[in-house]
Amino acid sequence: MPKIAFFYATFPRPTETFVRRELRALRSAGLFPHVYSLWKGNPEWEGIKINRFRILKLWSLPFWIPYWAWKRPTAFREVLTAMWSRPCPNLQNWNETFLGLGFALVEAKTIKSQNFDLFHGVWATMPTTAAFSLSKLLNKPFSMEAHAYDLFRKGGDWILKEKLFYASMIRTSSNSSAKRLFDLQKDDDRVKEIRRGLSVFPVRKSFELVKHGELQMISVGRLVEKKGYFQLLNILNLFHRTNRFNFKMRIVGGGPLYRSLQKEIDRLGLSGNVILTGSKTEEKVRDLLLETDIMLFTGIIAQNGDRDGIPNVIPEAMSAGCLILASCFAGASEAFVDGVSGFSFNPFSPAEWVECMNDFATNPEKYLKIRKTAQIDAGEYFNINQTAMKMIGVFKGIANKSK
C-alpha cells in the first residue's frame, strides 16, 4: 500500500460524519493514511494519532520563507504567482489559503523525512493548498477532492485552477460537481466521480405510518441558506392550511439561521408542528430516520453560489426506508431515480410537494415499492466499502506512476 498523508481542515469535525466513515473504511481495507489536522481538532481519534498543526509555529515563517525561496525557487515562485494572479474571493478563503501555505512552508522539512508517496487534500480549500504546496516544495504528487462548496461558493476556491492543473487526481462525489470540474479542467481522466458511502444500513420493521393519524417528517442539515429551510417552511405552511392530517416535522441541525427560522415558524403558526432539534449524533439521526415517514430536502443555490452536491442525508434516509422528496437543484436528485426511488421537486413551487405529501398520507401503501427500491439502491450505489476500494485503486495508480 502507498504511504499517504491526508490533510483535513479540522479533524474530527462533528458534522462531517461521512469523512470519518470513509477513513474507517480505508483503514479496514488496508490503507492507513497519516492524518493531519491543520486547524485544531483532537489529538487522536479511534486510536489514530492526529498530527495537529500548532498555529504558533507560523512565527517561524520569517526563517522558512527565505529557506524555501533559496532551496526551491521555481516551486516557491509558482505557488506565490498563483495567489497574486487574481483577487481572493473572500476573507475566509484568504485565511484558509495562507494557513495551508504557512503549514506547508513550516512543516515541509519534517514531512519530507516521512517519505510519503502521495499527499491528499480532503477538501479543495485549506487542505489542498497544503497538499499542493508540499507537492511543489518536495517534488511529490498530490491528489485532491473538490465538492460543491469548493467549486461554487463565490466562484470557487482562490487558486482552484492551479490546483486542478497540477493534481494527479481530482475526486468529486456528484455529477453536478463533476460537470463543473470538466468546465474548469478538460482532462477527464483525472476527474474521478466517487460517491460518499454508507457503512450502516438500518432495518425498518414496518412501512406503515410510524404513528397512526400523524405524519412524521424530517429534514437534516446545517441551518444555512443553501439548505432552503425557508422554502421548506412555505411548503409546510401550505400543507398545514390545506389538509386534514396532523404532522410533525423535525429539522435537525445547528447553524446561523436558527433564530430566524424559529421566528418564521412562530409567525406561520407552525410551532406545534415544526421542531428545531439542534444538531444530533450520527447514531441519533439514524434512529430518527427510522421513526420518520418522509424525508424532505429543499436545497437551493445560495446567493453566493454555494449549493449541495449529493447531500449525505439523502442516501442515509433512503437506506432507512423513508419516502424521499428532494430539491431539483444542484445534485440533490442524483441519489435516486425520480418517480422510481424518490421524487424531485422545485422548492419554490410548494403545491407539488404538498400534493405528493397529501397523496402519501392518504395512500401510504401506494409508495411501498418506491421506498423499498430506495433502500436497495442505497445499498448498491452508496456502499462505503466499494468507495474505499475505488479510492485505494486510484491512490495505488498514482504512487506507481510516480516511482
Overview of the structural elements:
The protein has helices spanning 17-28, 61-71, 73-84, 91-112, 126-138, 148-152, 160-166, 175-184, 229-242, 258-267, 282-290, 313-319, 350-362, 368-381, 384-402; strands spanning 4-8, 34-37, 44-45, 48-52, 118-121, 142-145, 170-172, 191-193, 214-220, 246-252, 274-278, 294-297, 323-327, 343-345. By secondary structure, it is of the alpha/beta class. The chain has 2 domains: 4-197 and 383-402, Rossmann fold (3-Layer(aba) Sandwich), CATH 3.40.50.2000; 214-381, Glycogen Phosphorylase B (Rossmann fold, 3-Layer(aba) Sandwich). β3 and β4 (48-52) form a beta hairpin. The model has no long low-confidence stretch (mean pLDDT 93).
CATH domain fold name of the largest domain: Rossmann fold
Kindly provide the radius of gyration, computed on alpha-carbon positions and rounded to a whole number of angstroms.
23 Å
Rough shape?
elongated
What percentage of the residues does DSSP assign to strands (E)?
A: 15-25%
Strand order of the largest sheet: 3-4-2-1-5-6-7-8
The total beta strand count reads: 14
- The topology string of helices and strands comes to EHEEEHHHEHEHHEHEEHEHEHEHEEHHH
CATH evolutionary superfamily of the largest domain:
Glycogen Phosphorylase B
Number of helices: 15
Distance between the ends: 13 Å
Low-confidence stretches: none
Averaging pLDDT over every residue, what do you get?
A: 93
- The first-level CATH class name of the largest domain: Alpha Beta
Gross CATH architecture of the largest domain:
3-Layer(aba) Sandwich
Helix content range of the residues, please? 40-55%
Integer tally of domains: 2
Structural class of the helices, strands and pairings?
Answer: alpha/beta
Largest sheet: 8 strands, mixed
